[in-house]
Amino acid sequence: MAEVRFEDVKKSFGKVTVIEHLDLTISGGSFVVLVGPSGCGKSTTLRMIAGLEEITDGELFIDDRVVNDVSPKDRDIAMVFQSYALYPHMTIYKNLAFGLLLRKTPKAEIDKRVRGVAEVLGLEPFLDRLPKQLSGGQRQRVAMGRAIVREPKVFLFDEPLSNLDAKLRAQMRREIAQLHRDKGTTIVYVTHDQVEAMTLADIIVVMHEGRIMQQGSPLHLYDRPVNRFVAEFIGSPQMNIVAVTVQNKGGELVLAGEGFVLAAPQSFDVEADQSVLVGIRPADVRILSGDADDAEVTCVGEVEVHEPMGAEAMSTVVTKLGTITVREEGHGSASIGETVRLGFGADLVHLFDGETEQSLRKGSQSEEEA
Amino acid sequence: MIGRRSRVKSVLIHAVLITVTVVTLFPVALVMRKSLSPGNEFELSLNPIPEKTTISHYKTVLSARDFSGRWLFGRQLWNSFVVAVLTTIMGVFLASTAAYALSRFRFPGRRFGMMIFLVVQMFPATLIMIPLYVILDRLGLLDSVLGLVLVYSTTAIPFCVFMLKGYFDTIPRELEEAAWIDGASRFGMFWRVVLPLSKPALAVTALFSFMTAWNEYILAETFLNNEASYTLPVMLKHYVGDKSADWGSFAAGAILVSLPVMALFYMLQKALVSGLTAGGVKG
Predict the structure, then answer these.
(1) B175: chain A residues, CB-CB within 8 Å
(2) Is B197 in Cβ contact with A89 (below 8 Å)?
(3) Domain at A122, CATH number
(4) Which domain holds residue B26?
(5) For residue B2, is pLDDT > 80?
(6) Are A364 and A270 in contact (CB under 8 A)?
């Protein structure tokens, strides 16, 4: 149950600084997923834990031991690479045994552990084959097996599923979750796929341009994003964002834009004339039926795209302030070309400052600082 | 129609290939003929079939002895073999380690060093013959196998370094990173991962080093003065002197000298073909 801790870590490649200032504690036994768009520094962070990248400044701890200058081979970590990085000239058995062999594990012990892992991962029939004779999914398992067999303190995964098809990916996702439940080893997992992040993580760390935007449990990030970036990154389909202005109408604050009006929710700090971004998840937008009260209508638009998928239906509605995606249960009520009235539940929207793009939710500033 | 055209095409292609093969092999056939024909003169006939055959030239070459009765061919074959094998070992060892450093590390002078390797390739070895002679003389390595090995290695290494560096560059770094995390040292990554994956390139490098040493004549002739320390190419040349020329023995010797290289080519054929195309198609 090893803890991994970054204290004021900086990473530069030559003159380019990739990570300015990283403070992050990954508690022992947790499953932490680093997400973000490409170039956000998530892979670099992982490679620093592995020891494959030097740390420019600051300190990295694994279990209260500073490992800045400890070689990867002495960190007792295991890593699964995106490309699997299996040794092409070795059989699957040797691939699995390699790490144990280098650590001078007794032969009988190696054999026992390799066969044990092969059994768990269903690799027994392939032990005498070379990696090139295996399919992508099987290679992926070998890469996992090679990490598991060493029984390291920390598992590192670098986008391990991105080369698999959707079905295999879902299956491997379940197996990785199972692995974590069984072993309880600390896992740090990098992905740009927010579905993987949501389903696997205890804690998600959202990164952007070398900085941590927010960290927390998947549902906390979904419900309480601290800024526009996290709001748009977490959740699929993406959250709708509309730019409006706060207006004082007879003592009541309302969010108003061209053809858009919504009473300002109480749970956010806003003031008159402030420009704000209204965010709402597609599932939280309602298409109002004909007999609904006009007071419920937030905006009006024309249905441009309607995608029924059976259990749910996605509609893209063009309004004067931009397109709004709506997710309806079942077959959906909209049809293409139809003009619809949309209602935003005031307690379901997220408000962000128009300039800083930070959440305006009461108390969110203190949370961010904590 | 198409079948007929492709047939014409096939005939044409084969005609060209056969012609080129004949042109290439004809001189070899003439040497073969001479080695089997009696007499010391090199006849100007173009007929590659000997009129009378004899193996006396082979006997002469194989049984040559010096004044003190030592078996010359055996000694010279041994010299050539030792020089070629040591050159190969030294060449491949130094070239692979140098190429690995050039491929994987970034250090001051890296680009300059590679350029120097390339520039050195542009000069013929004869150009540095005199400085080499002086150096070997000072080191007391004239007339010795070790001296020749040093000289041959230095001439073979630049090419080998380039060949191997190009190959190492195509091996994904992640394999070494995986080995590193698995517990390998830097040397372990090189020895257990990179080298086994570079077998084709190593085969080419080894063959090139071996042939450089096996076939070289001018430097060997310059540095070796004692008949007993000659390598085979020097021995060969001495059958054809200023005053007398024994072309029969020369031809027989030439055939004998080329046999080991041919055997080596044959053995490494498979590795060579994949070695020369490797890097072009990755994976």
Answers:
(1) 85, 87-88
(2) yes
(3) 3.40.50.300
(4) 1-39+48-54
(5) no
(6) no
* Apex A124 CA angle, A119 and A128, nearest 5: 145
Q: Given the DSSP bridges, would you call strands A186-191 and A154-158 parallel, antiparallel or unpaired?
A: parallel
CB of A150 within 8 Å of any CB in chain B?
yes
Q: Which of A87, A100, A132, A149 to mutate to test the interface with B (most CBs of B within 10 A)?
A: A87
Q: Is the pLDDT of residue B277 over 60?
A: no
Give residues 43 to 72 of A whose Cβ lies within 8 Å of B. Answer: 50-52, 71-72
Distance of CA A61 to the CA centre of its chain: 24
pTM: 0.82
Same domain, B89 and B218: yes
Of the three residues A227, A257, A283, the one that is the final residue of a domain is A227
Closest CA to A134 of A82, A92, A83: A92
For residue B113, the domain's CATH number is: 1.10.3720.10
pLDDT computed for residue A369 by the predictor = 45
Say if CB A163 and CB A191 are below 8 A apart. no
Whether residues A238 and A305 fall in one domain: yes
Cβ contact, residue pair A50, B177, below 8 Å: yes
Question: Does residue B105 sit at the A interface (CB-CB below 8 Å)?
Answer: no
Mean pLDDT of A315-325: 93
Residues A211 and A302 in one domain: no
Is the model's pLDDT at B5 over the cut of 90? no
Write the pLDDT tens digit of every residue in B228-266. 888 899 888 888 877 778 888 889 999 999 998 889 888
Q: Which pLDDT score is estimated for A366?
A: 55
Q: Which of A102, A133, A153, A156 is the mutation pick for testing B, counting most B CBs within 10 A? A: A102
The answer to whether residues A248 and A319 belong to one domain is yes
Task: Output the six-digit token pair for A220.
Answer: 């906390």
- Residue whose entry in the numeric block shows the structure tokens 């995608």: A307
Q: Give the residue on B whose Cα is nearest the Cα of A147.
A: B182
CB A50 within 8 A of CB B181: yes
What is this model's ipTM?
0.85
* Residue A34 belongs to domain spanning: 4-227
Contacts of B182 in chain A (CB under 8 A): 73, 98-99, 102, 146, 150
Does the pLDDT at position B280 exceed 60? no
Could you tell me if B274 lies within 8 Å of chain A, comparing CB atoms?
no
